[in-house]
Give the backbone structure.
Amino acid sequence: MKKSKALAVVLSVVLMAFLIMMMLPYAVMFVMTTHNNQEIFQGDILSVGDYLFRNLKAVFGMHYIRYFFNSLYIAVLSTALACLSSSMAAYSLTKFTYRGRDKIFVAVLIAMMIPGQLGLIAFINMMSRIGWVNTHLPFIIPSLNNTFGVFWFTMYMKGSVPKEIIESARIDGAHEIGIFFRIAIPFIKPAMVVFGFQSFLGSWNNFTVPSLILNRDELWTIPLAITKLGNMYQADYAARITGLAIATLPLVVILSFCSKYFTKGMVTGAIKG
Amino acid sequence: MGWSKRRKRSLHARINFWGKLFLLPFVVSFLAFGLFPILYSLYLSFMEYDGIHAMRFIGLENYEWVLVGNGSETFWRTILNVIRIMLVYIPLNLLGALAIALILFNRRTRPKRVMQVMCFLPSVTTAVAVGIIFALLFDYKLGVVNFILIKMGIISEGINWLSSPLPSLAILILMMSWGSWGSTALQFLGGLNGISEEVIEAAIVDGSSYFQRVVYVIIPSIKNVFLFVLINGFIGTFQIMEQPKMLFSSWANMNTVNWGGSDSMVFTPAWFLYNMAYSATKLGRAAAVAYAMAMISLVFSVLNFKVLSKSIKESD
């Protein structure tokens, strides 16, 4: 018994060490932001320098805040739309009965298996034909179409929103929309936090579609700005790296805030053995 | 009597009306942004189209170009590349994630929440950023890895990681694993948490060793999660584009040869498709590439699913 206790502690320490090592790329990147170009080229990166402020000034001097804001509002809007549309669809599929309901669910399952890149070319062409090129609309409106979201919320809602409460609310004369927002939604809060986070993540990190749609640089999102950092700051490697670090920060922050809901939601697992 | 029946029916109809209304936003956007582009892509793949002039029907010419014609050498190379990457990446990812999950599962491992956040962190980082970060880490002159290796005296001069094929491939696989070990581990953890206590305790009482318990009790219990992760791994690897593209974009380094060319070992199908979409001159061809890619990835997934579910059934 004692041997296995000791082994467990050792493994715990090993895992911690391993995880800390996995954080190395972040650590290196953040340390690099405190140095200037010369020090970076000398390879002197294991100590903390004092150029952070100067680097930050250089970064923000170039429209960076605008790209940040672009990514932010796009992610917020598309997450809101995805959550709304998917939860409403799941609500419909689980709490109502009408002809064709089950067939729609099967269609959703099949659609989930189709790779997104299949429709990419056509999607870009469509956007250019309806004049949505060089706008942010192609990233916001299509987020209403989230088959994974519908699947996710359906699985969750099947078990968690009791039909009796809904029916008694109806008898009490509540309006259907009110029932949805005030009764059904509170029951699925954890699922919504997890999904909302993933959705925000997907929107924030989206590179492919924005790079094919946007030409004007004031419309850029963060991933695009990252790839153009070379053009923006040219030889100023320190500024480039600082820009990179700032771009990765928001998700780190959000993750730490949501971690409670998140780890509970992810780890209790929607997929059981 | 008839009056209340009519009322009941109209109440039911009213409820169903709302039911369908709730479904509407999703269905409409699915048809417009999901189904239609897929069908339109198929249509385009039989056309010659540059986005400006009129379309011209050319039948299977695009598919011919991709599968056996001038584009085929590149196309099949991307398929080979992805298969080669998967052969190493998928087992590496699964075993590493399983090990992490098993340690996390143990009661004595602390602090759990901090570890879980650290696990998840790499997978939330923007893919383009990850590519650049790793290019920085392994840079010939600026890279930490070379710096540490030189300081430790293992080598006297920095290794030019990104300018030779095998190290580049290794770094790509490392980068992919780095990004997925943690989140895959958390998925496994979810499956492990679903195993009932009694089963494990019975195995302990029977006098089994830890290793035996892992192999004969735990792994079979999470076979669904395993399968899910495996299939997703295959599908996902086919679609990797941003990490390799940024890794080899010589963004961070002026010292290495750009290895992301179309004749390299790291050119993925998704990257090939992206290049064609970006240059936007032969849209019909690009659509054909997308469909060819999807077909192959589908065949792959189905094959894997069949093989794996058969072997899992046999071990039951």
